[in-house]
Amino acid sequence: MVRHVVIGVDAGGTTTRCVAVARDGRVLGSGRGGGANPFSSADPAAALEAALRAALAEAGDVAVDHAVFGIAGSAEAGRPAAEVAMLRAWAAVGLGGRPRLTDDIAVAFAAGSAADAGAVLIAGTGAVAAFVHSGAVAHRCDGYGWLLGDEGSAVWLAVAGLRAALAAMDGRGPGGPLGARLAAALDIPAGDPQAIVRAAHGRPPAELGALAPVVAATADDGDPVAAGIVAEAAERLLATLGAVMAAADPVAAPQDPPGGAVPGPPPRAGAGVPIVLAGTLLARGRLAEAVRAGVTARYGAAPTPAVEGARGAAGLALRDLGAPADAHAALLRAGAD
Q: In this predicted model, what pLDDT tens digit does every residue of 40-94 receive, in sequence order?
């Protein structure tokens, strides 16, 4: 018997994930591929195709009714290239119709909440916050890359740690174990500032994000320098979220409801709307705990953790087809188990 499904895709710079989901919210198949960011990935179309093929193969005999692709880098300048890659992959696996393209930010919010509007804070290699409405970003803050922004991200933590290590070596800052631990992680001699400079400049910035756990672990071991860096990262992330919450109030005029009823007020940031936390840095650890506590204290409610982003994309696809929010919510609950 042919089962009807929707497809959800969450494509980042290094990994693409795809799920095939039944209309009641059950995941029937999943797949993975390489990165599909149009700015940084080698072959986005091939990565999307690989993830689609694997998910459809696992799902079996299905008919695809709709799909939503959340692709990192697909906003504004990157949208044409992302759309070309999406449509090439879609055609390559023999599917008809036209899937909907959005970015990974909207998908991250939908991976934590089935609400129509709310905020999301994402911190992994990079960092960004956004207010999302009806499956699209209404307002965003940061996400400008390691050189100009991404404050509180893994790369930001790594660079702050390396700067602190160099300051300790040349007498501008306090000493401690952080420099030696970072040197060990970089496989360079401890106490040699030029070795740190060469190692840092010899790597792509995104790779430096792998040093963030070293900074976090050193903070957990009681080093005040590392602890200060982690605390500052949390404050910067909360400031990024705060800018979004302040700017997105209200975000859109309400639509006229059926039957001529009086429309309700537009969604307002900070007035009971959900706040979703996504990304590896906000999943667990000292930084995640500080951000969760800060959100709860400032907005009066605990934030919601996101599940796998592909489920968020599938939830948006279900909503596009008129499925109730309950199906989307069930999809997220199953992903959290």
A: 778 899 999 999 999 999 999 899 999 999 988 777 778 899 999 999 999 999 9
If asked whether residues 320 and 297 sit together in one domain, one would say no
Cβ atoms of 306 and 111 closer than 8 Å = yes
State both tokens at 207. 């790779």
Element (H, E) at 308: none
Classify residue 96 by burial, with Cβ atoms within 10 Å: 0-12, 13-18, 19+. exposed
CB-side exposure of 294: number of CA atoms within 13 Å?
21
Residues 6+ apart with CB under 8 A from 85: 36, 38, 44, 45, 48, 71
Q: Are residues 323 and 288 in the same domain?
A: no
The predicted model scores a pTM of 0.82
Element (H, E) at 62: strand 62-71
| Residues 238, 150 share a domain | yes
Compute the distance between CA of residue 227 and CA of residue 221 in angstroms, rounded to an integer.
9
Per the structure, the complete domain to which residue 331 belongs is given by 3-111+307-336
What DSSP character marks residue 6? E
